[in-house]
Design goal:
With 637 residues, the chain is α/β, with parallel strands linked by helices. It folds into three domains: 134 residues, no CATH class; 284 residues, FAD/NAD(P)-binding domain; 106 residues, FAD/NAD(P)-binding domain (3-Layer(bba) Sandwich), CATH 3.50.50.60. It is built from 19 helices and 21 strands. A hairpin with a 4-residue loop joins strand 4 and strand 5. Bound molecules: NADP nicotinamide-adenine-dinucleotide phosphate (NAP). NADP nicotinamide-adenine-dinucleotide phosphate binds next to helix 10.
């Protein structure tokens, strides 16, 4: 960063600073002045319900803002920035903004994530002529042009590896293209839920809406010129490995219905986990006489105004839909099987203040540290709140003293929202420990919607669906004109939409028999050069953004291809014992978390009760495991 941009007429540093995240401003101050004396004072102390400024005293906040203003104006007037802080200072800064002494084994990982030295710390560079030549001789097929598929395309392009992306939809965006239900928005802060190398300083909201997210991913794909590599409206039917040629033959059907077989050295699936809508097996489901649809197949042609609407489900999706439609419908009946935990998030629907956008764009290094703060605040510390303490015996409601305390706080916050409705509270307080299922971000609109006079929350189980509506087990008929299924996805049915035939003609789903497993979520014995992103056991529950996982996975996969290019080997697949040992470790570790308890029920588990979705370790462990493949883990031929 050399010259300061001109201040706009309607914003200046002083106004902008009012909207600044103070710990991040303190980091920017070090970059502007080289002065670290303010890092010697007390560190921020964050708590679950705080404003993010870590309890820094108002007078200290004011002094910091004043110092940043002076330093910024001096820089703007031409004073050069001091040399970059030393490694030791950066370490101090990390500890300060985190509010804790960060363990040494996180530092390399966190420095990469912080990315002070480069815009893209994970950029792929295959520089030697030998590698460049080998890259050009490869052909890779990527399935899916959503968040992970776009990322894969960007990295393969950087590597110089020819590739094609097959996408069933007519546009980029995956889940952000498909989920167009009212209220759809991200529940991970946007300044973190974005590619590390493509920051957006202009997110309109902290948790932006679907259209904004779709726009971001589409824009990024276009920026990297990916459109020319994508076959839209094309479905992969099957991928078959040919032992003689060591190539994959991938049968695809285009929008004209014509089928074609493409060949590739490697196939990378980026099809996601949460996009095959699951309709519940409820008796009489097809007998309903009105419109009935899944949230991921929202019917824009069905006007809900003045209708009697039934919503089945109260997961992350229904939770977002309900407040959006409650005021416009005549009557809303919400069918809840289990209540979600609500995580207080006052700024969930709030606009990003103009001053904050300005700081992100103009104040040197503020954006990097703000992202770092968000990254750290969602990282492994919070995992401890959902870890089972074996000495704690209240497992029906909590899994540890910290988990029990969190429960109390969350229940208190719920009660504060609807003090006049103890009947509602009795229904919406979950009867399972926090962390068992995915919790949701709450700013009060959900309980306010449920408390409306035209809304009923029904907790008696559903008996059957009849032409007029939904009958509950107590014999009551809840009449409805429209049924909306917020009933989730076939999450544990990985790669459900196409056949994958590996060595010796073995089909992957027949191998898995509903119990999907992979090595590091990405590779499978007997399926050479077949890779999956967001595969088995790579879902994160409380600690972090799935984009971080995708970036780590894509790096690993591209490094596998690099290994093939470097060695001249044709294929690689994980050794069975390595794969099995990894899965045994994962299974054991998952038992140690709330979501892994025998009674826990959620989409994190498959039909056999195995946690097939979640990564039960720390983020740093996934990072370490995926920086590059260990050739010893693979059968290479
Ligand atoms: P979900 O979490 O699987 O929720 C499905 C809901 O339907 C649950 O309340 C479930 O009850 C209920 N249900 C299922 N079958 C039923 C039946 N036969 N009878 C009555 N109720 C039934 O699905 P989702 O809400 O679509 O969310 C899936 C995941 O997508 C989320 O966990 C999240 O990872 C992601 N997502 C993210 C966002 C975001 O970032 N903003 C938004 C939406 C979704 P039980 O709980 O009792 O099973």
């Amino acid at each position: 960063m050399s010259a300061a941009p001109k201040l706009s007429d309607d914003m200046n540093i002083e106004t902008a600073l009012k909207d600044g995240h103070v710990p991040s401003l303190m980091m920017a101050l070090v970059h502007l002045t080289g002065d670290t004396s303010h890092l010697e004072g007390s560190r921020p102390v964050y708590d679950f319900f705080g404003d993010g400024n870590g309890g820094i005293a108002p007078e200290t906040q004011a002094a910091i803002r004043a110092a940043v203003k002076d330093a910024y104006l001096a820089w703007e007037a031409g004073k050069p920035l001091p040399p970059q802080p030393s490694d030791e200072t950066i370490r101090k800064m990390m500890d300060f903004i985190a509010g804790v002494d960060i363990p040494e084994n996180y530092i390399t990982f966190l420095k990469e994530e912080l990315g002070l030295g480069a815009n893209d710390t994970r950029e792929v560079k295959w520089e030697s002529p030998k590698l460049k030549d080998a890259a050009q001789k490869m052909k890779v097929l990527v399935i899916g042009a959503g968040m992970s598929g776009i990322l894969t395309g960007i990295r393969l392009q950087q590597a110089g590896v020819p590739f094609e992306i097959i996408e069933k939809n007519p546009d980029f965006g995956g889940t952000w293209f498909e989920n167009a239900y009212p209220g759809c928005r991200v529940d991970n802060p946007n300044h973190l839920y974005s590619y590390s190398f493509e920051p957006n300083h202009d997110w309109p909201q902290h948790f932006s809406t679907q259209g904004v997210l779709h726009g971001y991913f589409k824009r990024t794909a276009e920026k990297y010129g990916l459109r020319k590599y994508v076959r839209f409206e094309t479905k992969v039917e099957e991928a078959v490995f040919d032992e003689k040629t060591s190539l994959w033959n991938v049968k695809v059907t285009g929008k004209d219905g014509k089928t074609e077989t493409l060949t590739a050295n490697a196939v990378i699936s980026a099809v996601g986990q949460l996009n095959q809508p699951k309709l519940p097996e409820i008796k009489g489901r097809d007998s309903f006489k009105g419109p009935a649809f899944h949230t991921a197949r929202w019917r824009k042609d069905v006007d809900l105004t003045g209708k009697r609407v039934a919503v089945i489900g109260t997961g992350a999706t229904a939770f977002q839909v309900i407040p959006e439609i409650a005021a416009k419908v005549k009557h809303l009946t919400v069918f809840q099987r289990s209540a979600p935990w609500l995580g207080p998030t006052p700024d969930y629907h709030a606009d990003v203040p103009a001053g904050k956008k300005w700081l992100l764009e103009h104040l040197p290094f503020y954006d990097k540290w703000y992202r770092f703060y968000l990254f750290w605040s969602m990282t492994d510390g919070i995992l401890e709140a959902v870890r089972v303490d074996p000495t704690w015996n209240q497992t029906k409601e909590s899994v540890s003293p910290a988990n029990a305390m969190l429960r109390e706080l969350l229940v208190m916050k719920m009660k504060e929202q609807v003090p006049e409705r103890p009947d509602l509270i009795a229904k919406v307080v979950p009867d399972y420990p926090f962390g068992t299922k995915r919790s949701v971000r709450d700013n009060g609109v959900y309980l306010a919607a449920l408390a409306r006079p035209n809304v009923d929350l029904v907790t008696d189980g559903i008996e059957e669906i009849v032409p007029e509506g939904i009958k509950t087990k107590d014999g009551k008929l809840h009449e409805a004109d429209v049924i909306i299924y917020g009933t989730g996805f076939y999450a544990s049915d990985f790669l459900r939409t196409f056949k994958i035939v590996g060595r010796s003609g073995e089909e992957l789903h027949e191998r898995w028999k509903g119990d999907a497993r992979a090595y590091l979520g990405m590779t499978i014995p007997g399926f050479p050069n077949f890779f999956t992103i967001y595969g088995p056991n790579t879902n994160i529950v409380v600690n972090g953004s799935i984009i971080f996982f995708s970036e780590a996975s894509v790096r690993y996969i591209v490094n596998c291809l690099k290994y093939l290019a470097e060695t001249g080997a044709k294929t690689m697949e994980p050794k069975k014992d390595v794969h099995d040992a990894f899965n045994a470790k994962v299974d054991e570790a998952n038992k140690g978390f709330a979501w892994g308890l025998p009674d826990a029920k959620s989409w994190y588990k498959n039909q056999f009760g195995r946690v097939s979705q979640n990564w039960p370790f720390r983020l740093v462990d996934y990072w370490n495991a995926t920086v590059k493949p260990d050739p010893k883990d693979f059968v290479v031929s």
